[in-house]
Amino acid sequence: VYFDLNQTHKARGDHDLSIEYLTMTLDLNKQLNDTNLLIKILFDKISSFENSYELDSALVTAFHAFNISSKYENRELSAKSLFHIGYINKLKKDYVKALKYLNKSLNILPYQPFSELRKFIYKELGDVYNKAGQSDKAYAYLLQYTMLNDSILNKNRLESFTNLALKYGTKEKEKSFEL
Question: Residue 150: exposed, middle, or buried by beta-carbon count in 10 A (0-12, 13-18, 19+)?
Answer without folding.
Answer: exposed
